Amino acid sequence: MIIRNLADVRASDRNIKGNGWESARLLLQDDGMGFSFHLTTLYAGEEIKMHYKNHLESVFILKGEGTIEDLGTGLTHELRPGILYVLNEHDRHVVRPKTNILTACVFNPPVTGKEVHDESGSYPAEMDVPPPIPLAH
Amino acid sequence: MIIRNLADVRASDRNIKGNGWESARLLLQDDGMGFSFHLTTLYAGEEIKMHYKNHLESVFILKGEGTIEDLGTGLTHELRPGILYVLNEHDRHVVRPKTNILTACVFNPPVTGKEVHDESGSYPAEMDVPPPIPLAH
């Protein structure tokens, strides 16, 4: 059993800041769970364009409001607490937070954590993470 | 892209009640994400003994307080908002909520949803879910 505290993760190198967002990565690939689990804040007023080519992701809104635009369909959906958006088709999307938005995110396969350090703190408008090493289980 | 609302899930057959807990299953195996994602409430005053023999699970505390006892080590840990507990070794454990505890849970492999209906609403003290059908991806 692993017990982890968000405050400790926020104070560690598992807390990553990008353009318009900040993410506390409570579980990464090396935890061996087969998924990663992040508490991610998307900052008010930002326009965050994303495309995870190699990952599936679900994002549950805990606090805050904004919109997500599905660039495949052109549809825009409201984001507020209790909404889950699911990138089950590697969907290209843009999130536009009206307020700071706090989310609980799950990635499959898990994020390794190394993507970020390889980028030296800078992120492309369309960010992606490379394929991770397969897990034993 | 899937957009889902917790309120809708709570009002559907994806909202399951057990002995001492209630779970809104926002993502199940048939969503094809390779994990399931649940918002689960553990009720104050209950003593919930669990052992997931075939699944890994992470549980993030959103609201409420209590304890978790690791029956393998005998250690008891405090649960409060911001704590993640991770059953990475199919750990036998007991959760004792002091207040209602709201959690965000991830299961790998994903829960199918069929486990519950097979049990006809009753749950053994040590509950488990059967191995799911492997996903294509």
TrEMBL record, chains A, B:
Keyword Transit peptide recorded: no
Ranges where the record places region Disordered: 114-137
Enzyme Commission numbers on file: 4.2.1.108
Catalyzed reactions per annotation: (2S)-4-acetamido-2-aminobutanoate = L-ectoine + H2O
Keyword set includes Lyase: yes
Superkingdom per UniProt: Bacteria
Role summary: Catalyzes the circularization of gamma-N-acetyl-alpha,gamma-diaminobutyric acid (ADABA) to ectoine (1,4,5,6-tetrahydro-2-methyl-4-pyrimidine carboxylic acid), which is an excellent osmoprotectant.
Protein name: L-ectoine synthase
Designated gene of the protein: ectC
